[in-house]
Write a structure and sequence with these properties.
Largest sheet: 7 strands, mixed
Oligomer: single chain
Distance between the termini: 41 Å
Number of strands: 7
Strand content: 15-25%
Number of helices: 10
Strand order of the largest sheet: 4-3-2-1-5-6-7
Order of helices and strands: EHHHHHEHEEHEHEHEH
Helix content: 25-40%
Radius of gyration: 18 Å
């Protein structure tokens, strides 16, 4: 299995694992591609996934097979998608503080590299599904080099947490927004949560703070590193006091 895990700074011990779609990116990449280029049938796969009848890996693989677009159309579409305006500054701050960041996504590696490349950030370590040309008449196909046994996701973020720890991280921060982050949130030391992930962390008693974007994350990162967000009595409840 490919590994390109960041090397943690022993001074802090923290490693950041950051979701892409809806967290770094303003919108979900695969959803935007399906809306524009998806052949009939992708909606049924989406419904099966939301109902829990299939996992995200099966759903995404089937949906990618239904994308009817050329490489030129794909690249043109990706050029219209944007990331959170404060993410480059967040990356710069994390690097200044010696905290490695790895993008962990159940999305598409090609799209993530293309989008981040416009901001000079395509060298960030990445775990994501692999998008490749398909066998005609299928134009595209999906493989999942970061899947794990017993996990129905294309990218097993729980395995990414364990890989970070095996690489020397003593503490892990997850930044995410949705269902693909739920399992990993249960296993990390702290969460910066958006959208649906806020409700999951609140219900499960996971230590977290809510964020609307990376401006908030920039504010909270130094507090995480100095320990003020990790006080045992208040961490799971910190979101209610901000």
């Amino acid at each position: 299995m490919p590994t390109n895990a960041p090397t943690p700074n022993p001074a802090s011990g923290w490693t950041i694992l950051c979701d892409f779609d809806g967290t770094i990116s303003v919108e979900d990449v695969i959803d935007s591609l399906l809306d524009r280029y998806g052949r009939p049938g992708w909606e049924a796969l989406e419904q099966d996934w939301r109902a829990g009848r299939i996992g995200s890996r099966e759903c995404m693989s089937g949906q990618v097979a239904l994308l009817d677009m050329s490489r030129e159309q794909l690249d043109a579409h990706l050029s219209t998608l944007w990331i959170d305006h404060a993410f480059p500054g967040f990356v710069a701050k994390a690097r200044e503080l010696g905290v490695p960041i790895r993008v962990v996504s159940d999305g598409l590696d090609y799209a993530i590299h293309k989008i981040l490349g416009r901001y000079g950030l395509d060298e960030l370590p990445l775990a994501a599904n692999h998008l490749a040309p398909g066998t005609p008449p299928q134009r595209w196909q999906l493989t999942s080099p970061f899947q794990a046994e017993g996990c129905r996701s294309g990218t097993c973020k729980c395995a990414c947490v364990e890989r970070a720890r095996a690489g020397g991280a003593t503490r892990t921060l997850l930044i995410g927004d949705g269902a693909s982050d739920f399992c990993a949130a249960d296993r990390v030391d702290f969460v910066f949560a958006k959208h649906r992930l806020i409700e999951h962390c609140r219900a499960a008693g996971i230590a977290y703070v809510p964020i609307t974007g990376f401006e908030d994350a920039l504010e909270f990162l130094p507090q995480l590193l100095d320990g003020s967000l990790l006080e045992a009595e208040t961490a799971p409840h910190v979101a209610t006091t901000l």
